[in-house]
Amino acid sequence: MSSTLLWFQALLVFISLASVMAQNIKVEKTGFDRVPDKLFYFQGSQVALWFDAGARVLWRSSDQGKAWTRVTDIAENEPSFLYEHPFDNEKAYVIGKGKVHWKTVDRGASWQKFETPIEPAATFPHLSFHAERPNYVLFNGFKCNLGGWTGMDCHGEFYYTLNNFEETALLRSQATYCIWSLSSAAFETAPVKEVMCVEPAKKSGMASMLEYEELHLVQSEDFFKNEQAVNFGSTSEVRGVIAISAVNRFLVAAIKPKPSEPDMDLQISLDGENWHEAIFPVDAKLVHEKAYTIVESTGTSLLVDVLDSASSTVGTLYKSNSNGTFFVKSLENTNRNQLGIVDFERVQGVEGVMVANVVSNAAQVKAGSAKKALQTRMSFDDGATWSPIQKVYDAQGTLLKCSDGPDKCALHLHSVTTPRNNGQVFTSKAAVGVMMGVGSYNDHLLEYDESDTFLSTDGGLNWKLVRMGAHKYEFGDMGALLVLVDDEKEIDHIWWSKNRGNTWERYDLGISIRARYLTTDPTSSSSKFLLIGSSRFSNERVQSFYIDLSGVFSHKCELIENNESKSDFERWFARDLTSGPDCLMGHEQMFYRRKADRDCYVGLDFQPPVVELKECPCTEADYECDYNFVRDGDKCVRIGPDVITKDMCTSRNSVYPSSSGYRLIPGNTCNAEKGKKLDEPVDRRCGDNEDASYAQPPRPTQPMFDDEIDQFVYFKESPAMLLRLRNGELWSSGEHGIGWKHVLQDKGVIRSFIMHEFDFNRAYALTDETIYVTSNQGAQWEEIKVPLAPTKHIALALDFHPLEKDWLLFIGDSTTVSSQSEMSSDCHSQAFYSQDQGRSWRPIATYVRSCLWGRGGTMENTDENSIFCEEYQEKKGNQRSFISNRLSFTSSNNYYSSSETLFDAIVGVAVFGKFMVIAAVSTFLFLPPSIFLHISMDGKTFAQAAFPASLNLSPEAFTIMESANSMWIHVSTNTHHGSEYGTIFTSNSNGTYFVASLENANRNEIGIVDFEKMQGIEGIALANRVSNPNQANMGDPKKLVTMKTADAGAHWFPLTAPQKDSKGKNYDNCKRGVDCNLHLHSYSERRNTRDLFSLSSAVGLMVGVGNVGPSLSTYRSGDMFLTRDAGKTWNEVYKGAHLWEFADQGALLILVDDEDPTNVVKYTTNEGISWQEYAFTTPEKRLKVEDIITQPDGTSQKYVIFGTEYGSSNVVAYHIDFSALHPTKCKLDLSHPSDDDFELWSPEDTRGEACLFGRETKYYRRIQDRDCYIGEKLVQPREEVRNCACQQEDYEWQV
């Protein structure tokens, strides 16, 4: 048989196979009059919008372009612009040419009309969006007023809406640009309602808006009822602000300080409050107006391209450190166009890989003697180094070579300055490692129509010629599908590949078109594509082809992790440059992607790829220069003195721990133990530190306070503190009590302060007449004008909304004196609400006892604006003297324009976790009043709590204790003074049915119960039980025994006593195994109820004062006991009763004598195995300690001790810093857990099985004897290992 015949038969087989495959491709064609001016898919859906701006027509497809329908909800000939919401994939907006516009909240299925007071502006964008609140939108409009001596006054105006254009209000007139501070999803540190605007300082119509030297930046948190100019740390007003922009986690402002000069400054902020100037290298070109472009940046740095000269379109790319302060040169001679668009793109889905084009003949171009010769460079280390693409192969797999020499030629690619398609140029996020481009293998980039199409499947390391000529391309099914269409001429077919470009198949379209768009869903995870082209051979000028390639595969791919040869997926490592790990930001990225030769589809439509991070040893690349240091070559050099405390230097020859000049880049996850530790402190001579202070206070004590301490608290997740004295003085400390500042000194007596429950920067100080607020953790305060004096009759005069941080409820006292007697006056409490942080108030109700927002606790199903109040039914007389006036419980969803009475007579209301609890009074004929509890999880539907039939609640007889997934209630069965006790009941999961959990549970005379849940582990609790109830009823002292539950109250057991005490001796005061158990002093005896047995971050650890014996003895005779396994086993760790406090997530425990004056604390770093003492003052100034506190999350190693000096009335706060105890940070190595400083541990249930609530859960805990500090908060639990076999204890009852 001849070779020609063989070839012909093979061709027939190929054509036959292609025909069979084509039958599995579904294509639908739709005709249009014009190509779309804008086309986009709603993220995570099949819905697409096609906007024809010329015809002012909008089309919608619900099936990725298979069928299109014209949107008829929008008036004809009106649409001018189409906007997709960047933070809400359900919303889009059509801006009309006048004051009428349209919006959709269901991906275009329906459209609603809305109006704005003015027409849209001529400048873009018309809409600015809020990253956290999708309904918060700014509208940019334009307004002209006719008449007057000027003839016409035209200017821009910005409007805002908080409810998606249901209502609009004027934000700012004559502003050139406004944005929400929270305009980027990565920028999270600004107030929710803060807006920043660039506007003229002197407003005089359109002319002033064009005078750039008069523009300044203003910001406001209440839509400019109050405002402040942003002066970037300067003491004088800063003008010449050209622009403000949110870039990832940075705010960037461009300022032209001198009108006559082109130079500009860039100011950077991470919080919108504190700004610093961007510092470029000494040899850097000056930043000029319209001469810089911030290119796609990550959260760890900013990338800024600066134009080299006004006469060229050549720039230099600079990269910043993590806070955007210092910039270093990354790439010279970058290519840009006249619009400032830079040939730069980040490879999607893979960290640190970038593509850019440079001008190889920049000198000639700047001189005007040559056209640009572009070359492509790639970086695989986030811009630290760049290199040409030289590993390029032809279609047969042969390495391309250049006739002029191996280093003369490389692959050069057309980039974003010459866009030929929608979206990213080279990559898609879901198609990991797959890149395509149009370019040429030469000494420079050829024209587009002289270029060919290339493919890389390893993230840009190697490239292959896949098709001669320039083509549009698109990725599908996470890179399993590739589609090409000719982009140089009319064609009647496409090319597609399902094996990552190894072979290509042709599909005929049946009509010739000139391709205009080739696209798919934004994630490139679908198998459906949309091709749009113009045609001369059909009635419609434009044809849209819906191409479904999902049928070309035989089955769905299967991931078999433990058998890579059988698995359809392979592990692919990003940036595989070397034989070892290729790391960036301390880790190596590993992805699962489909093997190229597998005939299967991935099928994870609209989902991101699966990625794993492998930890790497630290290298120089993982560090940046610390504060007061800048990079000089490959070193960080000092540029200023260290900021040190006065006690660190006693003389010029003393040494102190100084920065090495390096710090780990924030977010970097490298392992310093296995690599380089460049950030360890170095000893520095005090004389070498300019402006150092050498005075040495003898001890770390602070100025004495004039009175006893009434309140003290940390701001959550912060070292800042507030402290109030009994005489009404308020003190603030910014750093764990190191220094104290007396605030609001001339504002009168501070009666109390309240921390904002949901905004950890705010606190409120209450005087007899008004309220002061801090929004920066006590640094500054401002007055809130309140309509009445804050109430003195309830604990909290304010309530806070969990979603809207500026929404407040306030209760004030109103008094109209009718006679000489205060008790006969018309004194009552009145409630008000504010939606602007107290700048304006509106009344709600009078004669109230309390009011609260319906979204309290973790209740999530209540209306956002719902309010509940306790109101007295008869609204007259003196509220303080009410005895028989009934208290009702009311609610409203319209700020009490109307209200509903939910309960006519109540004792009280409280919100615990997800439960709202109402104690309602019910009276029956001839029977005394009874209390019934009603429970709600949404504030709308209340169910009466069902207790055993014999139980009768009285107002003074029950205590609701801390609740999360179920409720715990203590009901007193004996209320005789000195012998109070009762039964603890626990509820089912919705809080409606209660059963007895523990009888004879101890409480004191004010209702405080000896009950405490373990923090951090659900289901474990301790309680004290009265073991002699009959004798206690007769007047004998109560004998208390401590019980523990590990199954949320289903079963209780005594605490097992340790075998020996802390001295190694046996306990001789009890009979082993009979009545020899451990008993602990609990809530009812504590001075401060915030002192707990456990800490949520110190998982498994509990500590308390107690004794071993038949029952609990006196506090003074107690010793210190500790458990590290959630109460299963206990050890006596120190003799004598002490106050205690955990720190560093349990790695540090401190004890201090609270019975006798002392000048020392005892501390352990190994959970009580050994102890050391530290003298925090001299013996002569020993302290009667009142309390010891640290940061509530337990991650700090700093404490504050409060007390009174022995022999005097001086109240003192001591700051103690244990940070220097451990020079080494604990190592957590997920890849090699046997080599790190942590162990995995599981708590056990009452059966001794490592299961709680049906699951075995693993937690990290530091190995007991490791000499290291933990530092950053560990994510707990680590993992849920398995589901346990169900036992009777795992079920709740059903009634």
UniProtKB/TrEMBL annotation:
Checking Gene3D superfamilies in the record gives: 2.10.70.80, 3.30.60.270, YVTN repeat-like/Quinoprotein amine dehydrogenase
Which residues, if any, are the signal sequence? 1-22
Q: Which keywords describe this protein according to UniProt?
A: Glycoprotein, Membrane, Repeat, Signal
> What segment(s) does the record annotate as region Disordered?
681-701
Q: Which residues form the VPS10 domain?
A: 47-691, 719-1294
Where does the record place it?
Membrane
Q: Give the protein's recorded name.
A: VPS10 domain-containing protein
Q: Which organism is it from?
A: Phycomyces blakesleeanus (strain ATCC 8743b / DSM 1359 / FGSC 10004 / NBRC 33097 / NRRL 1555)
According to the entry, what is the taxonomic lineage of the organism?
Eukaryota, Fungi, Fungi incertae sedis, Mucoromycota, Mucoromycotina
